[in-house]
Amino acid sequence: MEKRSFKWANLYLVFVFLLLYAPIAYLIYYSFNAGGTMNSFTGFTWEHYQAVFEDTRLIRIALDTLKLALSSALAATIIGTFGAIGIYYVKKRRTRNTLLSFNNILLVSPDVIIGASMLILFTMVGFQLGFTSVFLAHIAFSIPIVVLMVLPRLQEMNDSMVTAARDLGANSFQVLSRIILPSITPGILAGYFMAFTYSLDDFAVTFFVTGGGFSTLSVEIYSRARQGVSLEINALSTILFLFALGLVVGYYFIQQGLEKNKRKRTAVKDPTNHEKAVSPR
Fold first, then answer.
1. How far apart are the two ends of the chain, measured CA to CA in Å?
2. Which residue has the higher pLDDT, 147 or 253?
3. Which has the minimum average pLDDT: 164-168, 184-188, 265-269?
4. Which long-range contacts (CB under 8 A, 24 or more apart) does 177-185 make?
5. Measured between alpha carbons, how far is 157 from 242 in angstroms, rounded to an integer?
6. Which one of 106, 145, 169, 175 is least enclosed by Cβ atoms within 10 Å?
């Protein structure tokens, strides 16, 4: 009975993955179509990828998108990490739960509402729309993600290490830099990668707050798709998919390296391994 249910579970997983990845495979397949349409495959060609790399506007937008994602993810990770530490060390449980609730509300709020509220805020204060407005908006919606990634690592941390460090005379900066931050490094990296990917593919919030000639790849792809389906979009989407796949693989190996180093640091010698005493005759 268990084997049968196990087989059904595998079949269900295969079905779900096929459902998710079949459209992506279809898109990648036709990015090499020489016919120029997605009706029928007439021959293999690299011309659509060549067109992507020859499009100077698209290359500039891709570089701007990458710069935006890297910088906003870094800022959100710094703010979110210290925010998570602050929430974790709040003494009153009711206050801590209230702060977590405010953080979780931003996670479940629709992107349209966040984008519209950001647009209203920037309009009210007379802030010019452009790179800076998109940068601030991406930081705002990425911070709750970082907090959510870092908090579980703080809860797994051994608080007695912090207490022992303070008893030995360590100041707050030493406790933070030598005990807390090294203990939650995997959570910080996870938060950064999540913030980076959210920023990289965000459309709704960016669509509301962009302006002044600044654009991102998601907005640009949407604008071009409205003018008509082009296989250049397929080629660009394929490149983005492979880039995201590379990030996932890189993050996996980084996590494996961190876990391996952690096991080495926490490994202890066998306490029973002592020299045997030799009794005199």
1. 66
2. 147
3. 265-269
4. 180/85, 180/154, 181/81, 183/153, 183/154, 183/156, 183/157, 183/158, 184/81, 184/150, 184/153, 184/154, 184/157, 185/258
5. 35
6. 169
Which run of H or E residues covers position 9?
helix 2-30
pLDDT band at 144 (very low <50, low <70, confident <90, very high): very high
**Beta-carbon neighbour count of residue 254 at 10 Å?**
14
Q: Do the beta carbons of residue 201 and residue 53 sit within 8 Å?
A: no
Phi, psi at residue 44, to the nearest 5°? -90, 140
Q: What is the pTM of this model?
A: 0.79
How many whole angstroms separate alpha carbon 54 and alpha carbon 45?
16
Q: What are phi and psi for residue 170, nearest 5 degrees?
A: -75, 140
Chain position carrying tokens 């702060």: 99
Whether 204 and 222 have beta carbons less than 8 Å apart is answered as: no
